[in-house]
Amino acid sequence: MEGPITVRGGRAVGGAVARRAAPAGPGALVTPGPGAVRDLRGHSWRGPWRLSFAAGDLVVVSGLPGSGKSTLMRRAVRGHRIDSQDSRERWARRLPRWVPYALYRPLVRLAHFARLRRALRDGAGLVVHDCGTQAWVRWWLARVAARRGAALHLVLLDVPAGAALAGQRARGRGVSWYAFLRHRRAVGRLAGALAAGRLPHGCASAVLMDRAASDDLHTIEFAARPGSGDPL
Prior knowledge:
38% of the residues lie in helices and 22% in strands. It is an alpha/beta fold.
């Protein structure tokens, strides 16, 4: 296996810069720098790669329902993660199958945000599942990160609507067509901003990836920034 290749972003006059990284071999290490938008769509990794953030930072993973956010977090997160799907599954196990999700959705949301508040108290790095439609969640996390002297980062899965709908069917859970369209508009705005090199309010960096890059991402970790490496 080749040694890690560090992909670092930098500040640009007038705002963030969207950059496509050069092809990297297995074991590539991506460390988004302050003010950087990393567009990794269409990137050829040729094997597993890692995404690293500074200790104590917060990371929001966004994307369409069915795009693979929960799957990615369960596979790749090394450390704390808060996924609303975990809260939904816990409540679903307690209730009869015939009870529709719409009836206990408020309880799931309360449980999710209660878990998130508790997890934020210890100051450790944290990965949070975000549907993309609730900008206030990112604003809140950005304020928490700023108070602890850390940063908030965005990881956005840019998956076609058809693939996301197929993902919903495969897992046996879906959202209403109205809700899906609302998610699609919100995620589309985020993806468009990132592709243009614009960071959402409060985010120190962002990574935009497609399904192929997501499938090859095997680790999201929190560690001290590497002091050396070959920037691409």
